[in-house]
Amino acid sequence: MRVLVTGATSGIGRQLALDYHRDGHEVWALGRNQAVLDELSTEGMQAVRLDLEDRQATLEWFAAMTPIELAILNAGSCEYVNLPHFDSELVSRVMRSNVESMAVCIEGVLPLLRQGEKPHLVGVGSSAAYVPLSRAEAYGASKAAIEYMIKTLRIDLYQEQIDVSLVCPGFVKTPLTDKNDFSMPFRLSVGDASKRIRRGIEKRQLEIHFPKRFTYILKALSLIPEPLWIRISQRMVRNIG
Questions:
Q1: Helix, strand, coil percent content, the chain, rounded in steps of 5
Q2: What's the pTM?
Q3: 80 catalytic residue (yes or no)
Q4: Which residue among the candidates 139, 148, 158, 216 is catalytic per the annotation?
Q5: Are 23 and 47 in contact (CB under 8 A)?
Q6: Sorting pLDDT into bands at 50, 70 and 90, what band is 236?
Q7: Is residue 241 predicted with pLDDT exceeding 50?
């Protein structure tokens, strides 16, 4: 199987690229860290340095590619808003990195998936999209946008028989989460996260969320009437402060 992974030079993306390659698949690993790309190339992968925020360069690269069976769009970043200063440029950066770059990849990869056998498009979101969380005005909004985009594509690509899956991880130990200054319950290793994602992809699950003991709590909280959740979350923030 020909597999494409974006954000393949760090965290979950790197582990997915390594694991698919070691399982005998042909892997195209896209990222920006040249040192890690060289490492992946040494492993035998097709490692490509590409800035997904450069729309023209990204689309030109995809236009020169051959068919793909599985595309895992994982690239993204995380920044938190720290009030009282609301930084609109921070919001723009996160949206460009997480939402706009994924949209560009979708535009580029769909023609390749249409040529592949049993094509599968996978977008990596976050369980942070389930409920409003403190300081996540940018990150949470970007992941909510990804969720909506992926779920809508699932409807619109149905007749073309392109399967579409959404990945919503909880906390995973990566260079991004290592920067967090708050408690991260049930945090998993990248190896465990990769295993769960690959298992879900193999089953062609619509939504791959984990760890269940964490994501089901967030899903349950999302069912609470909004005024009640706002009061609960405000109290939590007050207690932290």
A1: 50, 15, 35
A2: 0.93
A3: no
A4: 139
A5: no
A6: low
A7: no
